[in-house]
């Protein structure tokens, strides 16, 4: 299983920047995690190709195996 | 379903939902401790994270007030075993507190959601002479365009977004002396409970994403400041005709 599975599960609701192994970049909030995919609520428009796809109303799906890097984005509340 | 920014904060159960998070609360309390603080009032206490922290630092009495009964219920659960804490619902523009009974008020990103001059007057009413008011408030780093102001106030449900000079003027007009005004980085860490297992309605994720987009869009003009204020003694207030 991908090493990103656990880290995604533990950080549902947080904003991340995911870069896939083929160099695509996705920014969004982690909404849902399955054994194979992480689903993001995208920040800044619904663009995204490559490994990302729109999955069953759970946001933008990215295959865990396709993740090259995952970084947490800084955020704050008002 | 129409949900607000504050509904989203409640849905995610975000504990220190203000710029800077709990780290800034800790910094602020270090300043509070230099002044009398036998009775501390946290206005807009939310789920009680700040009240909890302060109750661990002092034996003084702490009162937490929030307008949302659901928040007060959560705060009461969190603080069930704490003896020096009182939690109740109330409005910051008409606090359920007697005059001149409080040593220190903490207001973390709450006053901007109320009618600011009315809330500041109300803080002055319940504070003792020389009492301390700590305001942690979003502050525009330059005057905002009407469009920017409109977009931000309507999304967040704010009454207004003041610049630092506007805060200073409102604070002094309400009967306070501004002791210090400090800017700080608003970013925060560890505000989410790490065990969000329950399904959160997609509508809240949508608001979260829009919140993020707005803070990015206005990054250069939205700052955060702490204002340390002291209630001006009566004789001086009368002297300056206030």
> What's the gyration radius of chain B in Å?
18 Å
Q: How far is it from the N-terminal to the C-terminal residue of chain A, by CA? A: 38 Å
Number of domains of chain A: 1
Largest sheet strand order of chain A? 4-5-3-2-1-6
Which secondary-structure class do the elements of chain B indicate? alpha/beta
Give start-end ranges of low-pLDDT stretches of chain B: none
For this structure, the CATH topology of chain A is: SH3 type barrels
Number of strands of chain B: 7
Give the C-level CATH assignment of chain A.
Mainly Beta
Strand arrangement within the widest β-sheet of chain B reads 3-2-1-4-5-7-6
User: In percent, how much strand structure appears in the residues of chain A?
Assistant: 35-45%
Q: Extract low-pLDDT stretches of chain A.
A: none
Q: Radius of gyration of chain A over alpha carbons?
A: 11 Å
CATH architecture of chain A: Roll
Question: Most extensive interface, residues per chain?
Answer: A-B, 21 and 34 residues
- Work out the helix count of chain A: 1
> Which sheet architecture does the biggest sheet of chain A show?
6 strands, antiparallel
């Amino acid at each position: 299983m991908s090493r990103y599975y656990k880290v995604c599960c533990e950080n549902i609701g947080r904003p991340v920047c995911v870069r896939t192994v083929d160099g695509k970049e996705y920014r969004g909030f982690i909404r849902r995690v399955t054994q194979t995919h992480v689903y993001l609520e995208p920040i800044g428009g619904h663009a995204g190709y490559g490994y990302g796809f729109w999955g069953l109303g759970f946001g933008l799906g990215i295959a865990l195996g396709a993740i090259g890097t995952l970084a947490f984005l800084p955020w704050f509340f008002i | 379903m129409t949900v607000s920014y504050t509904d989203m904060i409640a849905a995610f159960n975000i504990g220190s939902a203000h710029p800077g998070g709990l780290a800034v609360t800790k910094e602020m309390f270090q300043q509070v401790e230099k002044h009398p603080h036998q009775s501390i009032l946290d206005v807009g206490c939310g789920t009680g994270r700040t009240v909890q922290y302060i109750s661990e630092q002092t034996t003084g009495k702490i009162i937490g007030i929030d307008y949302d009964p659901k928040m007060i219920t959560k705060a009461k659960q969190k603080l069930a075993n704490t003896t020096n804490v009182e939690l109740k619902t109330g409005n910051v523009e008409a606090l359920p507190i007697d005059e001149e009974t409080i040593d220190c008020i903490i207001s973390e990103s709450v006053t901007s959601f109320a009618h600011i001059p009315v809330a500041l007057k109300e803080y002055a009413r319940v504070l003792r002479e020389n009492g301390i008011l700590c305001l942690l408030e979003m502050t525009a780093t330059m005057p905002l365009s009407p469009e920017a102001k409109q977009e931000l106030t309507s999304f967040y449900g704010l009454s207004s977004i003041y610049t630092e000079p506007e805060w200073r003027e409102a604070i002094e007009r309400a009967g306070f002396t501004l002791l210090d005004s400090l800017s700080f980085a608003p970013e925060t860490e560890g505000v989410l409970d790490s065990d969000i297992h329950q399904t959160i309605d997609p509508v809240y994720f949508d608001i979260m994403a829009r919140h993020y987009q707005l803070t990015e869009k206005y990054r250069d003009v939205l700052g955060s400041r702490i204002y340390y204020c002291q209630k001006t003694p009566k004789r001086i207030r009368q002297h300056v005709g206030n």
